[in-house]
Amino acid sequence: MVPPRTLRGVKVAALVALFMATLGAILAVAYHRLVAQPRLAEEAFDIQRANVTAPDVPLLGRDGKPFSLSQYRGAVLFVNFWATWCPPCREEMPSMLQLARELAREHPGKFRMVAVSADGGWPEVDGYFAHTFRGTPQELVLALDPEGIVARAYYCTARGVCPDIKFPETYIVDKSGRLVAYVVNSRDWTDPAARRFLERLIEG
């Protein structure tokens, strides 16, 4: 016969083992949902990682004056290089604007979307937005880069080499001014993977 004290010890040990096994299972599920799944989603969305200081090259603003993206330090920047003559650029613009509206509403002052056009002047850009969106969307910071100087700075900095420039391409700059990721070609920016990635930077 097993002594009562020993029996109680066996029961306690069994309960502890059951508790540890249950806790391990809960932690495994949480890790999968919070870490593994988002990473897989980001990989499927094809977010390319980087970790370099973002180029601080002057852009030509809508008012005709140069400005720098460093003035938005403290906010997460979504910097998109595009052109009105680029079909994939036009294709992704509606989903970009939807993302910009949602993040600006939910995280006021913490997110900026910058659309840098390779067009030769503002008439082309204004004409596109007037025709497609009935005016320039307020959620966009617009800039011109007709000679591709800023686009090349971002392309080369992110990769460490200088490939041929193609549009569209998007760069993500964190709150400290680090270029942390880029996305090649057009995307559906309403994809939850993109939003999760950006919100982790905004809330971090």
Q: What are the defining features of this structure?
A:
5 helices; alpha+beta; single chain; 204 residues; eight-stranded mixed β-sheet; globular; Glutaredoxin
| Whole-number mean pLDDT | 84
- How many strands appear in the DSSP assignment? 8
The helix count comes to 5
Sequence of secondary-structure elements: HEEEEHEHEHEEH
Q: Proportion of β residues?
A: 15-25%
Oligomer: single chain
User: In which order are the strands of the major sheet placed?
Assistant: 1-8-7-4-5-6-2-3
The largest β sheet comes out as: 8 strands, mixed
What is the count of structural domains? 2
CATH superfamily of the largest domain: Glutaredoxin
Notes on the structure:
The structure is a single chain. The protein is of the alpha+beta class and 204 residues long. It has two domains: 45 residues; 158 residues, Glutaredoxin (3-Layer(aba) Sandwich). 48% of the residues lie in helices and 21% in strands. An eight-stranded mixed β-sheet has the order 1-8-7-4-5-6-2-3, with helices on both faces. Helix 2 links the parallel strand 4 and strand 5. The termini are far apart. About 7% of the residues have low confidence.
